[in-house]
Amino acid sequence: MKASFLSAVVGAGLTHALPTIEAVGNKFFTSNGDQFFLKGVAYQLTPADPLIDTEQCKRDAALMEKLGANSIRVYHVDPSANHDGCMEVFEKAGIYPLIDLDTFDTYILPNDPWWNQTQHDRYAEVMDAFIKYDNVLGFFIGNEIIIQADQSQAAPYIKAATRDMKAYRDRKKYRKVPVGYSAADIAELRPMLQDYLTCGGNSSENVDFFALNSYEWCDPTRYAESGYANLQSMAKDFPVPIFFSETGCNVPGPRLFGDQNAIFGPEMVNDWSGALIYEWIEEENHYGLISYGPKLEPTATGSNIEGGFTRAGVPTPVLPDFTNLQSQWATITPTGIKRSDYDPKHVSTRACPTSGVQGWLINGNVPLPTIGETLTTNAPKPATTNAPKPATTNAPKPATTDAPKSATTDAPKPAATKEVEFSQPAGSASPNPTRNPAPMNKELTGMSAGLVGVMLFFTFWL
């Protein structure tokens, strides 16, 4: 009797257990051996941690299930809070969160990059808090840190942070949760940055995945006209999984999400691992899939009200966007390839970009900075800084308050005096990773190409 009861209890628990996910070659696989494709949404209701209110997570997860989502991206969390309730809710709903490691005051800065022990330890706190959950899909080391060519000196700091957080993960004998980067879709930077973060042949330093915030596909359009054909050409046989960490242009509207058929269709599905739609909550930018109530005056105050929008309660679909995406995802069921049949050796090996290409400043596979090193550079500024920015997106990206604000000037500088120069002779390689604060409003951070000016304005304002 006791044995039967125990079996029933254990069986009930196992019913909701999700297989873990790993990155192998350029694909994600579940521990069951199935290829995994992301169909997810950006989820940051306020700058505060959205994964601590279990009841709100229940309401949202239930509607996400109906939408067809299997993943969410959370830009800012409080590592000292208890996330057990929300993480269990999302696990039962079959949803895998991706978590940004940086916090309000630990972002890698694009123009004045550094990577110090304080940043390392704060990133580690976030990893420590979430590594125990089997449904954590991955960690972002940064979001849109580099948004223009003359900020590429920050790239080695991004890579150094990746190296050190992967080393911390392995030293603690944690599950090998993938650690990657979310980039702005800037045409003049994209090819060099994605290659740089995966070049050099040292997997311990390279990102485990590369993600792109792109708003190039604005309905109505087609694959060949949208810019996706160009994105695909640069993703062919990419060394690590590549996916859209933000997408969903809302100009002219309503959003038809026709890009989902392309991403999961024959043109792209062999190289891309899916997409995260920007975003769950409706705000001033009108990218929301749901709302918690009518728009209010910007000065309105009250429980869960911020910036003129209610940020908790019963989620109501924003129509027709919600149902348009729901209909698209309902017809998309990629099966991919089994882990046992996959040979990761077919992926490409990317060469480290050399300096001078479209203003890229890092010359090859330069030595990465160690913890406590700051940047000095004698490299001449490229003449491309005043050139018109590429129009990589037709949609203005939102400026809202539901994502962590970026502290581009308040992060404590390292006490270390060791400086790194990245004016290297031809043939030398030494990356400097820089990182822009996680979503300045995730709506801000999600802003992709073409909106560089807008982003910079809000970054300063915030």
Could you explain the architecture of this structure?
- The strands form 5 sheets. Strands 4-5-6-7-8-9-10-11 form an 8-stranded parallel barrel, surrounded by 4 helices.
- Helices cover 25% and strands 15% of the residues.
- Mean pLDDT is 83; it is low at 1-15, 378-396 and 398-462.
- Helix 3 (84-92) links the parallel strand 5 (71-74) and strand 6 (96-100).
- Helix 4 (117-130) crosses helix 5.
- The protein has 462 residues and is α/β, with parallel strands linked by helices.
- The protein is built from 12 helices and 17 strands.
- It starts with a helix and ends with a helix.
The gyration radius over C-alpha positions equals 21 Å
Number of distinct beta strands:
17
- Amino-to-carboxy terminus distance: 62 Å
Average of per-residue pLDDT values: 83
Q: How would a crystallographer describe the biggest sheet?
A: 8 strands, parallel, barrel
Write out the strand line-up for the largest beta sheet, numbering strands in chain order: 4-5-6-7-8-9-10-11
How much helical structure, as a percent, in the residues? 25-40%
Provide a short characterization of the protein structure:
Helices cover 25% and strands 15% of the residues. It is an alpha/beta fold.
List the helices and strands and how they pair.
Elements: H1 2-16, E1 21-24, E2 27-30, E3 35-36, E4 38-42, H2 54-67, E5 71-74, H3 84-92, E6 96-100, H4 117-130, E7 138-143, H5 155-171, E8 179-184, H6 190-196, E9 209-213, H7 223-226, H8 228-235, E10 242-247, H9 259-263, E11 272-277, E12 290-291, E13 305-306, E14 309-310, E15 316-317, H10 321-330, E16 374-376, E17 419-421, H11 442-445, H12 452-461
Parallel strand pairs: 4-5, 4-11, 5-6, 6-7, 7-8, 8-9, 9-10, 10-11, 16-17
Antiparallel strand pairs: 1-2, 2-3, 12-15, 13-14
Helix pairs in contact: 2-3, 4-5
